[in-house]
Prior knowledge:
Blueprint lengths: L6 E7 L12 E7 L7 E10 L3 H4 L21 E7 L9 E4 L6 E5 L4 E3 L15 H13 L7 E4 L5 H12 L4 E6 L2 H9 L5 E4 L5 H8 L4 E6 L4 H9 E9 L20 H5 L2 E4 L9 H13 L7 E5 L4 H10 L5 E5 L3
Parallel strand pairs: 8-9, 8-11, 9-10, 11-12, 12-13, 14-15
Antiparallel strand pairs: 1-2, 3-4, 3-6, 3-15, 4-5, 5-7
Amino acid sequence: MSVIPATGREWHLVARPDGWPKPEAFALREAPVAEPGPGQVLVRNLYMSVDPYMRGRMNDVKSYVPPFQLDQPMEGGAVGEVLANADGIAAGDHVLHFGGWREYAVVDAKSAVKVDPELAPLPAYLGVLGMPGLTAYAGLLEVASFKEGDAVFVSGAAGAVGSEVGQIAKLKGASRVIGSAGTDEKVQLLLDEYGFDAAFNYKKGPVAEQLKEAAPDGIDVYFDNVGGEHLEAAIGRLKVHGRVTVCGMISQYNAPEPPAAPRNLALVIGKRLRIQGMLVQDHQALQPQFFEEVGGWIREGKLRYRETVVKGVENAADAFLGMLRGDNIGKMIVSFED
């Protein structure tokens, strides 16, 4: 049984960023470890997730999720060991929950999901079998209405979501899968390890030109993680009745002004395109099917994934900033263990 300390470290947002966040916007502080109340569990976090959507929560604007409060602990996905039990969750169990950015978290037992470290390594429940994985699965199959024979383009394809989208499309019978990434190393990863049919480095030329070369016959589905120039290029290559899942627009999260693109939205009319945004929480009913199907592919070696692990709670803010810059390959995770 792990000893419960009197205090633990937690990350606070201390200033709202204007454009790209700077390290001084964050502070690592010591705080008392709270006692869990009725229906709550105390968790010692082992791993936490940093994700692009967290940048939006740093702005004091109305959105689908409330903004982070200044001088309060931030939140995010985490996996940890239960220290104090409640409501069917025993001490020693491992749970997935939303009390990240701190060493110790008190969370409602009903919101904590038990995970089995014997079925998959614990960090996988933050990535390939976690929120990014379900986002990829639901965004492609449910939101984009993927069907066998579709040609699929994925932006940000070497990330946790994009790499899984491309592989699921191949496993489900896509005719062609194209991905974009920001380095030559990531492009090779898409081709050699994830099985994409074509991939390009978007920093090496106009996206529209590179996508036209990679998809000369057009695309049926675009899974958008980037927005801006990528979305404009995809609209140009989409076939009649093409579908777009808008999962993220990381290219503009830190932009001080809204982007001018896409400038070709009029094509949506003639091509009868469907462009739909998604939030993963709308698709929780798919989770059992997702666990069964994707878990099976992982066990069979049919679906591969990468993780970039940064060690130490003290490095969590640096890991977040690195993720925004694209320093990671696959899911960016912070390990609290030595």
